[in-house]
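Annotated sample (chain length 217).
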Amino acid sequence: MLDDAAGFSTLHVSRHPAVLHKLALLRAQGTEPKKFRELVREISWLVGYEALADAHLRPIEVSTPLEPTVGAKLADRIGLIPILRAGLGMVDAMLELMPTAQVWHLGLFRDERTLRPVEYYNRLPDTASVDLCLILDPMLATGGSATAAIEVLKDWGASRIKLINLICAPEGVRAVAKAHPDVAIHSAALDRQLDERGYIMPGLGDAGDRQFGTGLG
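Output written by the structure step:
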């Protein structure tokens, strides 16, 4: 695992002790699906919390038991876009942070021969209705799915987009940064490299399989 963002200006890697502790448990081969899902949710909450540090606010008046005061309310309309299927495990955590967020789904799978994304499901409304889109996907490997998802959202009319990942590979970060230098990437870790199959090393295996108890992980 690399200790920093390795010169990627769009990448923000969390160094929070709670994130690092939970990430080690998430990686462990012996972590069963139930615990794995819990860790995905917990790490997503922490990384998402950091990613929203620059969200826009508007002032509101609040009446305390003693006197009125000025408070703040989230001004951004936020859309959550989990990439099926692994991104589904990140949604509940983000809804805890932003209960009013809208949730849409994109289905993209990686062609194992070409390692390129193939879109098979898209439930976005006709026109963009949010100010900030958060793409949720545990793993940023080759960057193909992320780049495709960003292109779909930009064509749809989204102007502010962020990626929320748990683990990134340098190859994926580089691909997204080259294609979309305006999109920030927030992650719990930047790992070493991809293997010959396009899996992140050391990574954690297949995030979808490990969440849902399918395959060998």
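Annotation: The chain has six helices and 15 strands.
Annotation: The mean pLDDT is 89.
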